[in-house]
Specification:
The complex is a heterotrimer. Chain A has one helix and five strands; from the N terminus they run H-E-E-E-E-E. Chain A is globular, with a radius of gyration of 15 Å. A five-stranded antiparallel β-sheet of chain A has the order 4-3-2-1-5, with no helix packed on it. The longest helix of chain A is centred in the N-terminal third of the chain and has 8 residues. In chain A, strand 3 and strand 4 form a beta hairpin. Chain A has a domain of 67 residues: SH3 type barrels, CATH 2.30.30.100. The two termini of chain B are 16 Å apart. Chain C has one domain: SH3 type barrels, CATH 2.30.30. Chain C is built from one helix and five strands. A five-stranded antiparallel β-sheet of chain C has the order 4-3-2-1-5, with no helix packed on it. Classes of the chains: A mainly beta, B alpha+beta, C mainly beta. Strand 5 of chain B pairs antiparallel with strand 4 of chain C. Chain A: One of its GO terms (molecular function) is RNA binding.
């Protein structure tokens, strides 16, 4: 149950502006390799890091990875392999 | 295919299969197939008090997909051989 | 394919370069492992030795749910040689080279 004097929910974070170019999902993925990305898993956990590479199963290799759970950093990995079936989305974390 | 081969070399050895429902079964590995389905003989359930219905069961077939772990007899696993075979298999899979 | 910074062309290269090294594995069901990697395949089935498993058992205290108070119990156990079925794997991290 919601507590009566709980603070109002924080304003929704503004999504980054959509990329200026249009293209296929594959074009997007090619574009973000080497860039900072946010990978969200179906569990709700986020991984933020530099996208080294990915394959057709959406298996992902990340560098300088931070694991975020509910907004807090819970782990850091130099390199991380994420099994593709867990991936909900990949989002660019810097302008393309 | 590689892991299938590993299991084949371990037939007639004692292993402990831990299922995704937390049931652990120790037994003699009688056979394995390409899906890593497993047949065990002379089985013993780890926590019999919690699984009394398993007490009369002497052998079983385990569907590969319900397995979480298999504890292997370390003395019958040649780790150097495994690593070499894994590198070899990785080479053949690169040209997908 | 572009020869990027670390010479890794596909994600599995990261795993291949970790053979015979101690790796960290995050699994479904609030489990994690560390162990020495000896084999893997395309499903991320793994064979590890000298394994330590950590299971996080989170008990949310009913009376303090709003306060976010929860007690995390951790169970650990060791195993000599372990096959891990790939479908439970979420993340594999090689030893940090930092």
């Amino acid at each position: 149950m919601e507590d009566d004097n709980s603070p109002p929910p924080p304003p929704e974070q503004q999504p980054p502006p959509p990329p200026s170019h249009t293209g296929s999902p594959t074009d997007f993925l090619k574009g973000v390799v080497g860039k900072r990305v946010i990978v969200r898993l179906t569990s709700g956990v986020d991984y933020r890091g530099i996208l080294s590479c990915l394959d057709g199963y959406m298996n992902i290799a990340l560098e300088q990875t931070e694991e975020h759970v509910n907004g807090a950093v819970t782990n850091r990995y130099g390199d991380a392999f994420i099994r593709g079936n867990n991936v909900l989305y990949i989002s660019a974390d810097e302008p393309l | 295919m590689l892991i299938f081969s590993v299991f084949k070399t371990l037939t007639d050895q004692q292993v402990t299969v831990e299922l995704k429902n937390d049931l652990s079964i120790t037994g003699v590995l009688k056979s394995v197939d390409q899906f890593l389905n497993i047949r065990l003989d002379n089985i013993k359930v780890l926590d019999e008090a919690r699984h009394p219905h398993m007490m009369a069961v002497k052998n079983c077939f385990i569907r590969g997909s319900v397995v979480r772990y298999v504890q292997l007899p370390a003395e019958h696993v040649d780790t150097q051989l495994l690593e070499d075979a894994t590198r070899r298999e990785a080479l053949t899979q690169v040209k997908r | 394919m572009d020869p990027s910074s670390s010479g890794i062309q596909e994600p599995f290269d990261l795993i291949r370069l970790s053979l015979s090294e101690r790796v960290f594995v995050k699994l479904r069901g609030d489990r994690q492992l560390t162990g020495i990697l000896h084999a893997y395949d395309g499903h991320m089935n793994l064979i590890l030795s000298d394994v330590e498993e950590t299971i996080m058992i989170v008990d949310v205290d009913d009376e303090n749910v709003t306060a976010g108070s929860k007690t995390v119990n951790v169970a650990k156990r060791k195993m000599d040689m372990l096959f891990v079925r790939g479908d439970g794997v979420i993340l594999v991290s090689p030893p940090s080279r930092t």
